Amino acid sequence: MIKTLKFWKKLFDVFCIVCLSGAIFVLPASAAKTALPKKLVLSRRTITLYEGQMKYLGVKKVKPSGASDAVRWESQNKKIVAVGKKNGCVTAKKVGRTRILAISSKTPKVKAAVKVVVRKRPVKKEKTCEISGSVYKPSEGTMARWWEKVQRTYTIVQTKEDYQEMKSILKESFLSEYKDIDFAKESLVLCTVGAGGRDKISLEGFCTKFEGKGKMTGILQINRVPPQDEGTVTAVLHSYLGVFRINKKDAAMLDMIRVEQDSR
Prior knowledge:
There is one protein chain. It is built from 4 helices and 17 strands. By secondary structure, the chain is of the alpha+beta class. It has 2 domains: 39-119, Sandwich (Immunoglobulin-like), CATH 2.60.40; 127-263, no CATH class. It has a 4-stranded mixed beta sheet, with no helix packed on it. Strands 10-14-15-17 form a 4-stranded mixed beta sheet, with no helix packed on it. It is globular, with a radius of gyration of 26 Å.
């Protein structure tokens, strides 16, 4: 009888230890999953776009930190800007001012807003544009951040806030070379350039051209020189970033950017 009681006592002790261990490892995780958001902080406070331009918005952080950052996006004036309900992609449609709201999926009362200014685009025309800049080989991880946040082959930095946002995304020191840019007169363009890992690449020029149904394409001309010991142009092995200053009105004309390579 005594042996039987000792056996059941040991079994009970083991059961208690297992339960307590489960509480230690499971309960905090469960609590984290059920934490409700109380505040949203967005990637931007304001954005300025020209008619037809696009911009992705996102949630920078949420408080408390363990809460869900899932949101739905709404435009307060869909005639001025449209926004993807799930992906936060803003499309400027008409000149004006409005706001984009991010509404917590878990707690709809928790919201955050971005002010949006849409400006009239300059008249499109084909021309040769003056630019100044260079082509840079990004650090490891930079292009992964580029494709996650920018999600396009190029982006146009039109304001100081655009510039600060791009610095935080790319985390590249070469962007500091453009810190003195006057955004009232100029814009900064960043675009992806494919080339071999040992190629020497330089900017040759930039022009605008109508290509299909009134779309204005900016053509970035690149000079690409392969290593002398290879004799031929190498296969595309790396993604580089072309970065250049351009007149603000010239940048505002663009619907897309295409890279042309002159290999020597």
